[in-house]
């Protein structure tokens, strides 16, 4: 069947990089099932590798926007739906798809209107509790909470079904009035051909002088829910006691990066705690291959609803991941079998686990090999694409 995909995320290769990768990989897997996929990135260019949308206008305009945006943001977002509806209808008239997949975003109700006007079946990608994120993490903007949640529910219920990446998000939506049998869970995954234990990485090891050290790695943006404060603690305590260890941190973006950079500079660790900056996703596999131990040091959070792509990719590369017993991670990682779990907030336990792995190469290899097998058996993008394909067939045929 022919499928049109609408996505209204901003900053695709910055703060939204995990969701961007998920969409690209899952849609590729869906195409491999024989479907014709037409992707429309409506707010940012997919070719804009990490720079984010440009800020336009002079200093006066910038100051005025800064002053007014708290109050104008909500009406502006609502008004955009008029133009978006017109554009979406034009796209659908051109493409003539059998199915539309649209990602939930705050204030976005154009898919509701378009689905009614065109009669084309809609499948909703509900990977983000968008209203929750707007209320909790974008408090600078003045938002009407009841309106946000009402529009979000309307977005989801306008379709024939919805799918999301974790049981935690499904439970959130069910708690806000969406029927449980309306939402299907399709977690993230990994491509075991691209992310595998045999990737050549000598160029990375030479570039960062990693040949004779144990390398502890981190991939991701530097936002607080990625556990950056946990990361600084681990770096400080580990490097103080292990001279032949280096940290390799791959990624860009996030408000906590300046704090991490200052920490590294203040402790004179520039040569041993390496920040690579932005790396294109297609090059990430060889960076992970250069790592011996990998980290996902998530902090204690009341609502951890993510399906971390990097954890699947770490496992696919056969690396022992040290992470926390939280959300979906606790569902896919079995402590000391295919990874290592510590309790959220227990940095001392994480430090001791890392110390054990530094000194025990055999344990690292054993657990990493099991992680790789689990990816091959349970968590490939191919299997996720097959799940989504079956759901698409059900929606169109129903």
Describe what you observe in this structure.
The protein is of the alpha/beta class. The protein has two domains: 2-189 and 381-397, Rossmann fold; 202-378, Rossmann fold (3-Layer(aba) Sandwich), CATH 3.40.50. It has 15 helices and twelve strands. The chain has a six-stranded parallel beta sheet, sandwiched between helices. A six-stranded parallel beta sheet has the order 9-8-7-10-11-12, with helices on both faces. Helix 1 (17-32) crosses helix 15, helix 2 packs parallel to helix 3 and helix 8 packs across helix 13 (347-359). The model is unreliable at 50-63 (pLDDT under 50).
Count of helix runs: 15
The first-level CATH class name of the largest domain: Alpha Beta
Number of strands: 12
Structural class of the secondary structure composition? alpha/beta
Identify the overall geometry.
Answer: globular
Q: Mind telling me the C-alpha Rg?
A: 22 Å
Total number of distinct structural domains: 2
* Beta-strand percent range: 5-15%
Largest sheet: 6 strands, parallel
Instruction: Enumerate the spans where pLDDT stays under 50 for 5 or more consecutive residues.
Output: 50-63
